[in-house]
Amino acid sequence: MHQKVIILDFGSQYTQLIARRVRELNVYCEIYPFNTDITQMEGVRAVILSGSPFSVRDDNAIHADLDALLGKYPTLGICYGAQCIAERLGGDVARSDKREYGRARLANVAQDTLFEGVDEHSQVWMSHGDSILKIPEGFTLLAETDSIPVAAFRSNGQFPEPVYCLQFHPEVTHSLDGSKILENFLVKIAGITPDWTPDSFVEETVEALRQQIGPTAKVMMALSGGVDSTVGAVLLSRAIGDRLFCFFIDNGLLRKNEFQEVLDTYQTLGLNVEGVDAKDKFYDALAGISDPETKRKIIGHGFIEVFEYEAEAHPEIEYLAQGTIYPDVIESVSVHGPSVTIKSHHNVGGLPERLKLKIVEPLRMLFKDEVRRVGTALGIPQKILGRHPFPGPGLGIRILGEITPDKVAM
C-alpha angle with apex 102: 98 to 107, nearest 5 degrees? Predict the structure, then answer.
């Protein structure tokens, strides 16, 4: 099991960016709402508290249970996270006269492991409406900037595990040494081994899929020709071979020559895939329709009908594989309370329940850029991994007015 970083989300627009930066350092992390009890989780080695659009001075400000975190795990508070820690432990946090937003330069940087290899006047990115005017007793000031008195501070031995706080955002590219600061915290301070790599993901996921699916069950997956479904299918194929049954639907609205080119690529990848020519079915359903939103719904319904037909033709199938990725999972969980809903466009209209299929989602813990890196590790050609995205309704919404085979051909 990988050592794990938990990012507690207070609703910041940058939270997913923190996770991506951590994973770029080959450290595994997961995002949870701010009020999640992480004490029962296995393998947690460090905690990061995100920023937030809220103010700690608001009557309805949101707070994590710091008693359960501070001292138990190495902790890094970023912006709002830092302000929460400062206020809770007796520091002084006040509303700024104006929102501080934009570039700043570090100044008076103390010698500390957090800033090893960081330029003394490094550019950082500010985005906050509150300022920390005084740090809590027993903490040490590590840096200020040309505009604020507290840019970074740390605990001074009063906790079994260190607590670091940053008023700036190390996760954004405008903080020029931000990745180095995060690396110092995760590897040098928290002592995490950076072993979360595409190769390790492939090896572990293939084994996990074998365990989940078992030695005999069969899996069905609809392929789109895009990155997510292709990488997911190749992972499943590595795990269960020809017990994965894939199909690729020609809805008559793909790019020129796309159907055959994608099918040929799938054959070279060794996938057990069937091409389904459903052009006429879609053209008939779209006859006389000009409204783009109506076209979308008709095309979506057409995919479901073809999907149901294929599923019924293979009654031995037990699992439905989906290309759900981590942002779909995260965005279905509100910071105001967890929910278990994956965004509906990734669930094929309740089909798993109707067809009594169990779900398997090999990519559900990956960001899009990680999916591409895993695809590279799997040997998938760059012409698939780097394909320009194309919407499911395809040319159906690109063609003005009624859709006809002649218009598609043109």
Answer: 95
